[in-house]
């Protein structure tokens, strides 16, 4: 049975008339695009489509101003269910506009690569439960202080030194394959001099010893 709200379930809040809610007033907005017209046809959900009309440049600008992503300081974009390419592209379009965001949650979005995204003011980023395999796939976050990467698929610590000059104080890598690397904690702390806490545990004296360095050399005996 159709619900009264069925005709709105794939609409963004900007498409609903007669309100003035801006993007920076929302804490957990759903920003993914709805299914394509073709997909809705095969689902037999054509009734959910809003009647198309010619969108003027003025209306496009008004929608951009209403989204107001540039002024978001704290935002939760988790659990977006980005099942199609057009949804992922719209998601990244919004991320590129978050030039002032300081706290951002992107949990469980099946993300694999955000290296083209820059978040210049972000101090706290949570990307738990995604599909990152390398530190190189993270967005550019020069001001990061707290970074959570739990439950991804990061195999090695390669690329972690890119955060060496960032003010990173807390890092969570729980349930990543790299956690089982030999001398894991020492390697992380030696790569990140500003780090104070790893996986919820403060820096310990034994974490400060430098990683073991093995020298290979030939020995010559003089008689």
UniProtKB/TrEMBL annotation:
Keywords: Leucine-rich repeat, Repeat
SUPFAM superfamilies linked to this entry: L domain-like
Tagged with keyword Repeat: yes
InterPro entries per record: LRR_dom_sf
Name of the protein this chain belongs to: TILB protein
Gene: Lrcc6
